[in-house]
Backbone:
């Protein structure tokens, strides 16, 4: 079915006529895709999500009826109800007419199911976007085709990138109001691809969309836009990848020790990276003790392997001291342990992040005391990091973390579970920041001092390779690379060793 | 741990079930993670057990999460006294079969003042026999964490609820002031008297629940399957007419219809649907083509505008 046919059907019938009832098949051969939608009310975000729910039949008749009741006089010219009412669950929001918090929506097609984190677009709600983005595999950014990219588009893209999202869809909405202007669409998508590349994101799809008319959302808009031959939004979502493939080695943050009797001792947790099988040698961190895996126990059967995402109980071949908060990891590729780390974080509460204050840090199942030293704050307008001593609410900052006891992390770039943490204010017990580990801080003084950049003298080819990596793209401000000959690099290293 | 449990269940009959599809597996893994996290972080967890399909799934997941150990917390059933007879029978069967610790609580004020859905209206009745009763039971057990089977797809106000949902000492939920929840890192820090409601099924939809029940062969109350049953029509709902306390009003007649229930609550407030679905396959295919949401049969959601949000702020589950 094409979109105009659908729109006509809606026009012909009563205000809330549902699209024709095709049963949504439910066999799922892939994991749910988690996505976040970014954009403002003006960009038509609620209409887009409403359209997705409507055209995938996630809206039922009684919900549509109460929608009809609530949206009296607010129907648009297609006779469809005000989708924002469907989405804005809380009374306070209805009264204010804005979305104030992260809401989760569910819909599915015959290929896959989707979890949408619906977050507000207003500047003061950076925290909500960071929350929604933390679990998302993909971000849908909305712009109004008549307006083009805004400062907030850059802001949203930057936050999504920081939170580790590597797949973007740009929905150029209200394309109908530009008379389906192809050059306008191409100009906007070109600008956006430049922006995405500057952030190190390569997987970008731009789609001309009319959420109101349902063109290129679930149904194609070929009738109005014969020049567009790309996928619809739903097609992109169906084919997107989930973030299960984590390349670092096996990680099991231990949630609890199961000891139902003298004869059984198992370590329960969710595999946070890599895979494990009986016979594997593992190290228990932070103690550094080593053991071998004898069994992977689950309720259904004793398994011969477990992969990232599996909730398991691990049995080891010897008596070792393991407790909640420890990490069981592969010996070959261990996480970093140390007392000092660099991180980026988003300040989530009105009190901000205060220098020198001792917070609780929780990562995986591990909770420990940490002192946080803000270093710089990201200016979302310019993309520059400016010096900062404290971080107000909604700020994105770089910080130094100092621990009393050994901490265990991977870089967030490498592992979105063992590289992520939250900060809890011990005075209020509230969650005050979400953070991502960048690197372990070098113990050598002088090599990584505040405000000064690390100077790396590298053979030219190695320097080029390093500069092309994603990790480096995010940290250009931190290091200066000097291209030297291989012989000169050896000389420099010899000097450091002495 | 304040609750001590003898060891049991060290042997599980090797299952011959096919493996779960990746979608259900992901949901199951997430729920097990939440169960373990809450059990490890809180001193006195409890699981709210309403006997319905979502509770059946929740119970199954709890057994999986702690296997080969026992479920390390009790189950709490708030019994209004007006549940379907078959629900209570099913509950007792489960307690026996899985060796569960069950705490059943009925608000004594209900019995003393003879509060019924007929005499006090659904709003006041629910307030006293469910909301107030739940608060009493949670206070009496000094529980600091309570698992519930709520799903975000059920109702608009639930779409924004966290997986760890913070409650004040008087059990209130403040939707404007929820703790941010990032990744799967949950903040379980509370002061004495405060508590958390934990929702392992937050990301499940109704179809997921049914497909999981089918895949895992989870027992459920037979009322979910279609059968010829006595009903009476009242306020536009078909109410099961088997309890002698249900008095027919003038003009009402009892008749038999082939019906089933999509959700289960108190029988006088729960509407049946006409259906021929006698198997899980039937139910799932009925759902795929369903045009109304599951809470449509629940009278208490429609009492007033923003009905569920108001109940939740006051401590309804």
Residues:
């Amino acid at each position: 079915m094409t979109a105009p046919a659908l729109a006509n059907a809606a026009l012909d019938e009563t205000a809330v006529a549902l699209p024709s009832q095709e049963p949504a098949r439910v066999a799922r051969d892939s994991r749910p895709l988690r996505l976040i939608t970014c954009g403002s009310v003006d960009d038509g975000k609620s209409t887009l999500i409403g359209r997705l729910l409507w055209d995938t039949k996630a809206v039922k008749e009684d919900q549509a009826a109460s929608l009809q009741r609530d949206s009296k006089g607010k129907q648009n010219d297609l006779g469809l109800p005000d989708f924002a009412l469907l989405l804005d669950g809380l009374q306070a929001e209805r009264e204010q007419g804005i979305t104030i918090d992260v809401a989760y929506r569910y819909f599915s097609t015959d290929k896959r199911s989707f979890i949408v984190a619906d977050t507000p677009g207003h500047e003061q709600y950076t925290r909500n976007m960071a929350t929604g983005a933390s679990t998302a595999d993909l971000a849908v950014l909305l712009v109004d085709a008549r307006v083009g990219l805004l400062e907030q588009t850059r802001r949203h893209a930057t936050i999504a990138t920081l939170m580790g999202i590597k797949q973007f869809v740009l929905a150029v909405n209200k394309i109908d109001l530009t008379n389906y202007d192809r050059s306008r669409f191409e100009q906007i998508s070109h600008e956006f691809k430049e922006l995405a590349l500057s952030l190190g994101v390569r997987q970008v799809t731009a789609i001309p969309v009319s959420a109101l008319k349902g063109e290129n959302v679930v149904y194609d808009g070929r009738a109005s836009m014969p020049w567009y031959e790309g996928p619809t939004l739903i097609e992109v979502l169906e084919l997107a990848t989930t973030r299960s493939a984590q390349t670092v080695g096996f990680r099991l943050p231990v949630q609890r020790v199961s000891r139902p009797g003298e004869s059984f001792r198992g370590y329960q947790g969710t595999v946070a990276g890599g895979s494990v099988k009986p016979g594997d040698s593992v190290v228990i961190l932070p103690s550094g003790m080593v053991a071998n895996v004898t069994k992977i126990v689950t309720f259904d059967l004793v398994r011969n392997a477990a992969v990232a995402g599996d909730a398991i109980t691990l049995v080891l071949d010897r008596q070792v001291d393991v407790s909640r908060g420890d990490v069981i990891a592969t010996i070959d590729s261990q996480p970093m342990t140390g007392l000092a780390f660099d991180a980026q974080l988003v300040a989530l509460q009105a009190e901000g992040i205060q220098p020198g204050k001792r917070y609780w840090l929780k990562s995986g199942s591990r909770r420990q005391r940490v002192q946080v030293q803000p270093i710089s704050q990201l200016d979302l307008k310019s993309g520059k990091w400016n010096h900062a001593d404290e971080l107000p609410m909604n700020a994105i900052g770089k910080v130094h973390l100092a621990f009393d006891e050994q901490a265990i992390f991977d870089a967030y770039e490498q592992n979105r579970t063992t590289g992520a943490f939250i900060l809890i204010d011990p005075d209020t017990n509230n969650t005050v920041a979400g953070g991502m580990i960048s690197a372990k801080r070098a113990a050598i003084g002088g090599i990584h001092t505040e405000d000064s950049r690390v100077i790396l003298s590298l053979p030219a080819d190695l320097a080029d390779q390093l500069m092309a990596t994603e990790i480096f793209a995010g940290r250009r401000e931190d290091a200066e690379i000097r291209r030297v000959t291989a012989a000169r690099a050896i000389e420099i290293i010899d000097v450091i060793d002495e | 741990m304040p609750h001590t449990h003898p060891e049991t269940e060290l042997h599980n009959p090797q299952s011959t079930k096919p493996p779960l599809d990746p979608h259900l597996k992901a949901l199951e893994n997430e729920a097990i993670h939440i169960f373990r996290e809450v059990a490890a972080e809180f001193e006195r967890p409890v699981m709210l057990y309403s006997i319905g399909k979502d509770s059946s799934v929740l119970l199954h997941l709890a057994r999986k999460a702690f296997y080969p150990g026992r479920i390390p917390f009790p189950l709490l059933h708030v019994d209004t006294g007006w549940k379907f007879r078959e629900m209570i029978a099913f509950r007792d069967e489960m307690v026996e079969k899985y060796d569960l610790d069950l705490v059943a609580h009925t608000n004594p004020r209900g019995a003393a003042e003879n509060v019924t859905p007929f005499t006090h209206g659904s709003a006041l009745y629910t307030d006293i026999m469910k909301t107030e009763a739940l608060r009493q039971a949670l206070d009496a057990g000094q529980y600091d964490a309570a698992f519930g089977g709520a799903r975000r797809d059920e109702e608009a106000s639930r779409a924004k609820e966290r997986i760890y949902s913070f409650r004040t000492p008087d059990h209130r939920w403040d939707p404007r002031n929820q703790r941010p929840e990032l990744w799967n890192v949950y903040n379980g820090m509370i002061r004495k008297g405060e508590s958390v409601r934990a929702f392992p099924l937050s990301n499940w939809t109704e179809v997921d629940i049914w497909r999981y029940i089918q895949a895992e062969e989870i027992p459920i109350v037979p009322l979910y399957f279609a059968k010829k049953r006595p009903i009476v029509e009242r306020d536009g709902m078909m109410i099961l007419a088997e309890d002698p306390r249900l008095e027919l009003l003038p003009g009402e007649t009892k008749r038999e219809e082939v019906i089933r229930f999509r959700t289960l609550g108190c029988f006088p407030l729960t509407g049946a649907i006409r259906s021929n679905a006698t198997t899980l396959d039937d139910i799932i295919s009925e759902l795929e083509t369903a045009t109304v949401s599951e809470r449509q049969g629940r009278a208490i959601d429609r009492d007033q505008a923003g009905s569920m949000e108001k109940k939740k702020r006051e401590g309804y589950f």
Summary: The radius of gyration of chain A is 25 Å. The first strand of chain A starts at residue 33 and ends at 38. The mean pLDDT of chain A is 82.
